[in-house]
Amino acid sequence: MKKQLIATIVGGIILFVWQFLSWSLLNIHAAEYQYTPNQGKIIEFLSQNLNADGGYMIPQAAPGSTDEERQAVMENAMGKPWATINYHKSMDMSMSMNMIRGFAVDLVAAFLLVWLLLRF
What are the distances in angstroms from CA 110 to CA 12, 48, 52? Predict the structure, then answer.
């Protein structure tokens, strides 16, 4: 049990450090987010048209639509632009809680891996 606990902690730390490096110093995920010089206009438009924080998929049928209405929206959208939006009314860059949650998830993942490896 002691070996499993030590392996879990070491594995969690290794995974956490790798995730930190890949998103910050190494910037492996740079292609995930693109820049647009129109970002000011886009943010202004979104803040005028979205009234709640959340994720949006556009185009999408209205809540409560029938299957036929949803199908019609999807067929009409084929070949046209679409977007996913993560919208927040105010920017809060405090990463401490996200880092703590991330490390906790890394520990769980490391524990599961160690547990599986010890079974075989």
Answer: 5, 44, 36
| pTM of the entire predicted model | 0.65
CB 19 within 8 A of CB 106: yes
- Residue 12 is which amino acid? G
**Residue 13 contacts residue 49 (beta carbons within 8 Å):** no
Q: What is the pLDDT of residues 14-72, one digit of tens each?
A: 999 999 999 889 989 888 889 999 999 999 999 999 999 999 999 999 999 999 999 99
Cβ contacts of 4 within 8 Å, gap of 6 or more: 111, 114, 115, 118
> Nearest-CA neighbor of 106 among 3, 13, 7?
13
Do 112 and 4 meet the contact criterion of CB atoms below 8 Å apart?
no
Quickly count: other Cβ atoms within 10 Å of residue 8's Cβ.
20
Which residues make beta-bridge pairs with 61? none
User: Between helices 96-119 and 2-23, what is the axis angle to 10°?
Assistant: 130
